[in-house]
Amino acid sequence: MKTNEKIALLVTLLVLVAVPLALVGYKRAYLPHKLQGAHVISLTALASDGVWTEEPVTGTNYWRKHFPPAKEIHIRQGETVVLRLASADVLHSFAIPALNIGPIDVPAGEVREVRFTAQEPDTLLFLCWQVCSPLHGKLQGRIVVLGPHGEPAQKSSPQEPEL
Amino acid sequence: MATAIQERPPQSEPDLTAGSRRVNLFEKFPLLKRAVKARSFQFWVVIPNLLLFYLFILAGLFGTPIGSHNIIIVFVWILWWFVLITLMVPFLGRVWCTVCPLPFFGDWLQRRTLVQVRTGNTNGLRNQLYGLNKRWPRALSNIWLQNFGFLFLAIFSALLVTRPIVSVIVFAGLILLAIVLAYVYRMRSFCNYVCPISGFLSLYSMTSMLELRSLSESECKQCTSKACLRGSEAGWACPWGVYMGKLDRNNYCGLCMECVKSCPNDNIALLARPFASDNKLKGFDEVWKACIMLVLALSYSVVLLGPWGGIKDWANVSESRNWGGFALYASVTVLLALAGLPGLLYLSVRAGKWLAGAREHSTRVLFIRLAYTLVPLGLLAWIAFSVPLVMINGAYIISVASDPLGWGMDLFGTAGFHWQPVLPAWVPYLQLPLLLGGLFLSLRSGFRVALDLLQDRSRAVGILLPVSALLTAVTVVFLALFVG
Questions:
Q1: Distance separating alpha carbons of residues B437 and B471, to the nearest angstrom
Q2: Which residue of A has its CA nearest to B105?
Q3: Which range, of A39-48, A95-104, B316-325, B448-457, averages the lowest pLDDT?
Q4: Which residues of chain B have pLDDT under 50?
Q5: CA-to-CA distance for A138 and A50, rounded, in angstroms?
Q6: Residues of A contacting chain B (CB within 8 angstroms)
Q7: Which of A140, B32, B67, B278 ranks highest by number of CB atoms within 10 Å?
Q8: What's the rounded Cα separation, in Å, for the pair B404 and B409?
Q9: Do B54 and B191 have their domain in common?
Q10: Which residues of chain B neighbour A7 with C-beta distances below 8 Å?
């Protein structure tokens, strides 16, 4: 095999391997590094299913699947949490009223990051803050803040009225 | 001995009516010639596009389902389409085929090399080719498959240009098809007869200001090796089945540059030429391609640029679920493309023939030749349609470049760039000269064709009158849509 053929073969294989590797590397290595070891929670809003879901919503599954809601997310008191918020259809708005987080606009196709630290065990409501669809009222879930040893909260924040 | 010439209508003598103002780019830019003659030339121009299309497909699969934030939609249907139709086709002809990654794996399978040439004997060619090497069916040796393929995709374009997964299915499907066809059939049967993009490039490359031609026809006649067609140790046999000695139109030359390498007489050159120099359509398949493209430009303009939300909903059936409306939209578009415009053109040609008393040519010949008048207008109408698309949606290119999958990346610091249209008030002022320019070029080409056929100026004007009226009416419809 001549040198230029070898180089071409190498470059082709490199392209075929490097592109997916770069994407996986971004998610698995670069992103955690960038977020400095925070507890990362990805939530995607779907008006069609009326959910904030923790499952990745992609071109592959968007059109064929009903996504389960992220009903109860567990975090620990004192840990840094980064919420990565996305919308897979229309403009949503995110809020955790008990922590004075939001409302944060989450336009379709874009990612918004929210960093926070819960100081005491609690159960926090998160929800969509603007009327996004007929299923808007269902776009909510709970974040359970556990104590440093994993113990549940003694009390919960008062529930916000449905918007 | 059988040769690998793929069935094509016979090539005719060079069309002298287009004038002979040509500039040999290989003479003017020797470095270009040196680059093109390098064995690895095509590999290096394809590989960046292979990388990009691979990324597009992965982004379509694993990126956001929101089209305006996924690179496969934004880069292909806004950026690529705009560059292809407004820059590549008019100025560089089929140069997209030079850099296209779709047949890359098929070629690799067929040649089992990426750069080097294999000498040998395959169906009379002097190259070793692998696969079944079957002859492409004679009945399909035309661009009808490409016509119907493009029309089909265009009907579902509202899905194609908004849903990343649909674009993935189409591109991955085309790559797979190219691989299968390269294994079963000879050479680039996929590009020649199946690829829907190739079909419209074939038609509109006739207008382009670039051509690859032999410099001396007599040298080709004396050449015993016919290395351009049959290959040699220096280059592959023309993947498109073209014999350079008879090539007089851009339609079926994919600018792969193999003939530049294989020609033993250094008789092939890349030439710059005036716009719309080729003007000879040669079959009903090409006529219908011209009609389909013009009607689709109109249909897209109505759906994507027009003020009628109802028609948008019909076309966008995946959102609206209005199947009745979609059936109506699809039927009207298909009927106009396959029967309406060809019918009107036929009647215009019949009337023109009667006016000019052109009995020396059959209506069939006149119909096919004068259908070329739809080509410059069609291309300029597509450009007039594409310019506002990029002016209105171009901002997405900037944000998506930084976040190609909608994962929240910010590669170049532009992910947060907000959508804003660029000079929207100027759109009609750009569309107006484009359309009028298209009409002028069509009428000028029509006159040249008519003069070539009838050899008499007044009869040429006579035969062209009804066709000119039709072209003017089409232009007025576009103007009403664009400028209102």
A1: 12
A2: A12
A3: B316-325
A4: 1-18
A5: 5
A6: 2, 4-5, 7-9, 11-12, 15-16, 19-20, 23, 26-27, 56-60, 62-63, 84, 86-89, 108-111, 113
A7: B67
A8: 8
A9: yes
A10: 40
